[in-house]
From TrEMBL:
Binding, heme b: H91
Positions contributing to FAD binding: Y196, R212, Q213, Y214, S215
Function recorded in the entry: Is involved in NO detoxification in an aerobic process, termed nitric oxide dioxygenase (NOD) reaction that utilizes O(2) and NAD(P)H to convert NO to nitrate, which protects the bacterium from various noxious nitrogen compounds. Therefore, plays a central role in the inducible response to nitrosative stress.
Organism: Virgibacillus profundi
Keyword NAD tagged: yes
GO terms for biological process, alphabetical: cellular response to nitrosative stress; nitric oxide catabolic process; response to toxic substance
Swiss-Prot/TrEMBL cofactor(s): heme b; FAD
UniProtKB keywords: Detoxification, Dioxygenase, FAD, Flavoprotein, Heme, Iron, Metal-binding, NAD, NADP, Oxidoreductase, Oxygen transport, Transport
Protein name: Flavohemoprotein
Catalyses which reaction(s): 2 nitric oxide + NADPH + 2 O2 = 2 nitrate + NADP(+) + H(+); 2 nitric oxide + NADH + 2 O2 = 2 nitrate + NAD(+) + H(+)
Ligand binding (NADP(+)): G282, V283, G284, L285, T286, P287
Molecular functions per Gene Ontology: FAD binding; heme binding; metal ion binding; nitric oxide dioxygenase NAD(P)H activity; oxygen binding; oxygen carrier activity
Domain FAD-binding FR-type span(s) in chain numbering: 158-269
Length: 408
């Protein structure tokens, strides 16, 4: 993918680059206005976008980051390909189609005009229209390949497919697991440890369906998909999670849940045989459990260190299973960190994970590090690993929104 091949002339690229400082200053206002305009005119698209993230501003921030990155790299769009692929996995999981892109482009340009006012000259608007067309074509092309690959996989499907809940297991005070098998009884594809599915929640009384992405929490090839969902309770100004509450309260064994095929690039590299360090906070445990269950089957000799942080034992899901693995596999060690342990609770560390403690328990910094959890946890994990001189190539995580939220 080169800018020449994509047909953006130098004048257009120069105009786009000149708008980079404006995007830094007004990007989130532009994207917030974009969503407002688009949903007013296309309320059916509320089915696709997470309205909780809309309300919190996360979605606007993520889009602003993506637009800014594209503008800053307009001379060399290859630089943003890794991020394009990451977003394309999410788009594929949400079943974003080529026909959605012109709608997004239309309201993005209107939002730029609205927020920048007279500063949005005709030249700037035309340049952004051209640039958006080029960037949209890149996404459409990559996503087309992804859809075709999924469709051509044994048991693969595009859009949503009904799965039946075969088992419901309460894992902690706030996390419940749902075991899912295809309602049609036909084959379904194996996935890679770390991938996720999109759940379509069709909730009575809601004006639109809700889509949410949940990591698969068991090893591939077990004849079942499992998602482990944290119930998001009301807290301060934030209402209870619409979808997580629905799943916890309404889904029972035998219930039908439409899901998309597995997606995502945050996957365990089984070509690497070095020590594997898995770190999770809260419900970030879910992809880490899939990776742990996978590595003990696929690489039974590989050294694994599993570190989980939770508020206390009441919030610690799958503790018994991890203990069982650590007790029966000599090469697996597990550590528990509790922020506020209750009186009779045992843990390996009270408070938070810090670099000094990590350096005491980790055998080496020449290892593969994977982590997942709330943003604060992930930011601390990243900084702790950098303090320990872990190479960037050995640090693996996935985040909703700009990576700078973690790495800055």
């Amino acid at each position: 993918m080169t800018t020449t091949a994509m047909g953006l002339d130098k004048e257009t690229r120069d105009i786009i680059k000149a708008t980079v400082p404006v995007l830094q200053e007004h990007g989130e206002k532009i994207t917030a206005r974009f969503y407002q305009l688009m949903f007013e005119n296309h309320p059916e698209l509320k089915n696709i976008f997470n309205q909780t993230n809309q309300r919190k501003g996360n979605q606007s921030k993520a889009l602003a980051g993506a637009v800014y990155a594209a503008a800053a790299n307009i001379d060399n769009l290859e630089a943003i390909l890794p991020n394009v692929k990451l977003i394309s996995h999410k788009h594929k999981s949400l079943n974003i189609k080529p026909e959605h892109y012109p709608i997004v482009g239309k309201y993005l340009l209107l939002a730029i005009k609205d927020i920048l006012g007279e500063a949005a000259t005709d030249d700037i608007v035309v340049a952004w229209e051209k640039a958006y067309g080029v960037i949209a074509d890149v996404f459409i092309s990559i996503e087309k390949e992804m859809y075709e690959e999924t469709k051509n996989t044994v048991g693969g499907w595009v859009d949503f497919r009904n799965f039946k809940v075969t088992k419901k297991v309460v894992e902690s005070d706030v996390i419940t697991s749902f075991y899912l098998e295809p309602a049609d009884g036909n084959p379904f594809p194996v996935y890679q440890a770390g991938q996720y599915v999109t759940v379509k929640a069709e909730i009575e009384g809601e004006t639109h369906n809700h889509l949410r992405q949940y990591s698969l929490s068991c090893a591939p090839g077990e004849g079942v998909y499992r998602i482990s969902v944290k119930r998001e309770d009301a807290l301060g100004d934030n209402p209870a999670g619409v979808v997580s509450s629905f799943l916890h309260e309404n889904l029972e064994e035998g219930s039908i849940l439409p899901i998309s095929a597995p997606s995502g690039e945050f996957v365990l590299d089984l070509e690497d045989s070095r020590a594997l360090i898995l770190m999770s906070g809260g419900v970030g445990l879910t992809p880490m459990m899939s990776m742990l269950e996978t590595v003990i089957k696929e690489q039974p000799e590989r050294e694994v260190i599993f570190i989980h942080a939770a508020r206390s034992g009441r919030f610690h899901a799958m503790k018994t299973r991890v203990q069982e693995i650590a007790e029966t596999k000599e090469n697996v060690t597990s550590y528990t960190v509790y922020d506020s342990p209750e009186a009779d609770e045992q843990c390996d560390k009270e408070g938070y994970i810090d670099s000094e403690w990590l350096e005491k328990i980790l055998p080496t910094n020449d290892a593969a590090f994977y982590f997942c959890g709330p943003k604060g946890f992930m930011r601390a994990a990243y900084q702790n690993l950098k303090k320990s001189h872990v190479a960037d190539a050995d640090i693996h995580f996935e985040i909703f929104g700009p990576a700078e939220d973690i790495t800055a």
